[in-house]
Amino acid sequence: MKGIFAVLLCGASCVCQGQTYPDSVMMERIYATSFVDGEAYKNLRYLTKEIGHRIAGSPQAGEAVQWSRSLMQELPFDRVYLQDVKVPYWERGAKEEAFILPTREPLKVLALGGSVATPAGGLEAEVIEVELLSELRRYGDAVAGKIVFVNKPWDESIVETGVAYGLNSSQRSRGPAEAAKLGAVAYLFRSLSSSPDDDFPHTGGTRYVKGIDSIPALAISAVAANRLSEVLKENPKTRIHIKNASRWNGMVDTHNVIAEWTGSEKPDEIITIGGHIDSWDVGEGAHDNGTGTMGTLDAIRTLMKLGYKPKHTIRLVFYMNEENGVHGATRYGEAARDKKERLVAAIESDAGGFAPRGFDIKSSAEKVAWIQQHWKPLFEQKFWVSRFFAGSPGVDSGVWGQHFPNTMMFNFRPDPHRYFDIHHTDKDVFEAVDRRELQSGVAALASLLYLLDQQIDEIGQK
Amino acid sequence: MKGIFAVLLCGASCVCQGQTYPDSVMMERIYATSFVDGEAYKNLRYLTKEIGHRIAGSPQAGEAVQWSRSLMQELPFDRVYLQDVKVPYWERGAKEEAFILPTREPLKVLALGGSVATPAGGLEAEVIEVELLSELRRYGDAVAGKIVFVNKPWDESIVETGVAYGLNSSQRSRGPAEAAKLGAVAYLFRSLSSSPDDDFPHTGGTRYVKGIDSIPALAISAVAANRLSEVLKENPKTRIHIKNASRWNGMVDTHNVIAEWTGSEKPDEIITIGGHIDSWDVGEGAHDNGTGTMGTLDAIRTLMKLGYKPKHTIRLVFYMNEENGVHGATRYGEAARDKKERLVAAIESDAGGFAPRGFDIKSSAEKVAWIQQHWKPLFEQKFWVSRFFAGSPGVDSGVWGQHFPNTMMFNFRPDPHRYFDIHHTDKDVFEAVDRRELQSGVAALASLLYLLDQQIDEIGQK
């Protein structure tokens, strides 16, 4: 190991002295540095274990902002600053409860993010179970006074779990308003979990619609959903009890955390890289999105350690409030638009810290083809990274990208198999992250950043 | 989910009725069946939790043989049989111990597979630490009476952990003989672990050489190796105590487990698929190689469930004794050679049950290129399987392949990041396997088997 390090240090100093290497050699150096000397895992441990989960507006989110800034200040960035953002602060309050009546058999539930509270003593009602919200219509007036229970099982047959998630996530966000329109008193939503045996409830954002009553909205674990469904088949008049004490605390001042590494040739052309620093208020926000923030930071640190000097300005952004409002990315986009910044490319990491598989690319078909031809071969065989397909940007880039339709965007794609087992649950903890997988992702991000900085002008000609 | 199932069942019956589908549609059916209805995970639970680890020759290995046969007999194979194999039966005996003297500070150790015992009360000696066996020469006579401690850290910089493993594994097998040649009384080997913070010792095969004393050989955890090295730096005269009670029980009768699904067009041309059923005698042999056996069996079951009728004979082989002798694969090869069988292709799974990444292919460059051109596009974007490079076969196929140099061989490659953290340790248990990753691998194996059966004659023309 010592031997390898000596080579790396030599490499770094050689780059400093203006020597250049073939891309493949630079990438070998990046990977070796990340695996041997990476700090993403160590930093993730601090973020998850010392700060913990950090919903936007919370004291923990504030602590994450200050600590992230101090991390960035320790590195040779040219500028580190906070960008003011106002976010809505939603607080869960006392632990939710739900049980079947009259046996009081418990059901594992978790309020959906943004839910209003039940009355202090909870509420009791009969339940109407459907797979799809569209089925509610046929119940007509019978919905009034009841709890609507949307129990659509995850489509296990789909390899890419993000696609299966997307098939059903709109029922989570639209559900409370659609149920309330028909007079429902609460909304119960089968958790979006890729594991059929999962007894953890998965939270996630929901929303209300002006002019329609806001009713309490809870996620129920897959196992509890199956159980409740079974009970309802035996007795459709079964009543259940639910209690939830969450509340809105109004708008709170907080920040995006930003660091800039000024380009030596085109300082006004900016490559944005980052992910969201907030999380849901369960687990530790490890894969969502501790790995995305600590990973992108470590990708830049890796290039710095190798003595790299960027041609374009590289800007690291930790967005606030992706989970329940996206106010951080909105603010970033508006500020950049007002300053007429030249945001030439963007990389986002917000799909977990599993083994890196590639990047979805939002760009013209010609540019995607150019990347497949020139960059994929650098990654594919040796580094096990092979996905360079056209696709959508991450949530935060997508939001600010509305003002920058021509920015080439890269959405980091780690392996998708395990993500939606732990997503938005108490299972999303540091221990669910593997160091080699995380640092392999750091190296993939650093390699892409390097290639973009070196060759983006060449792609731009296409 | 019910909706999807209905489609699948229709699909299956359609195939039965002789309809054919494009390969991409057949693969969608394979993946959906494996994810929704796969049994590899369930069977793996039985193998690991009810039978447990199963070193060749042990009662558990015998139980695994009988149970595997019964699993195969439940499926519509045309023939299920046991192939006699003689294997050496090595037994660990009472738990090993090691500690530093005079403090008795413990060191985590595990006898290497095949090691002889120490004297009943253990042995004590000074330690000579080297990174490489080749360094021993410079110690000359000083080695006599000492314990040789090979402490070479894992090369973390290499993405493909199997390559890093290969760089050092020969020191595990050659070590005891080379140390004994110089008069060493025991051999202590730093565990081959990809995790620098690993305090689990990793066992693995070693071997003695006729005419050179057999000395006790133990693996020491990475953490304990670091600690011992530190102590030796302070006091090179430090003595340690080790004790090991393992023994050889001679040759034992056991079996390969084989099932055949006869081809409808070319029954004499055989595609072999399988992996080894034995394991080391620690943990539960989950990734090594419960996933390989249960996965290949489930790949065939998936095709059967879809009503598929193979053109060539598909032969499932659970090899005995891959870990310490490869006698099962040797026997399989000799029997096939003697019968002049036509083994046209082989698939082996023995690299864990992590997310499938592809297959290493042993064949001509032309055939590999043909597969990259025709099959890779079927797997790559939709199913996240993209590695179809020339490479080596698995250990068992490699051994019997010596008699069949023209057999096209496929070595299943799951994600490599986590394998060598748990390999050959008490960490290799059922809980380390993810259901979706495993069933995704089953689908990849079934898809390759299907494509081979359909198109191998076409590749053969190249």
Automatic annotation (TrEMBL), chains A, B:
A single GO molecular-function term is:
metal ion binding
Protein origin, superkingdom: Bacteria
One GO term of the biological process aspect: proteolysis
Question: Which Gene3D superfamilies would you find in this protein's record?
Answer: 3.50.30.30, Zn peptidases
Short name of one Pfam family for this protein?
Peptidase_M28
Matching entries from InterPro entries are given as:
CPQ, Peptidase_M28
- Intracellular or extracellular location(s): Endoplasmic reticulum; Golgi apparatus; Lysosome; Secreted
Span of domain Peptidase M28? 256-440
Cellular component, GO annotation:
extracellular region; lysosome
What keywords were assigned to this record?
Carboxypeptidase, Endoplasmic reticulum, Glycoprotein, Golgi apparatus, Hydrolase, Lysosome, Metal-binding, Metalloprotease, Protease, Secreted, Signal, Zinc, Zymogen
Subunit structure, interactors included: Homodimer. The monomeric form is inactive while the homodimer is active.
This protein is called what? Carboxypeptidase Q
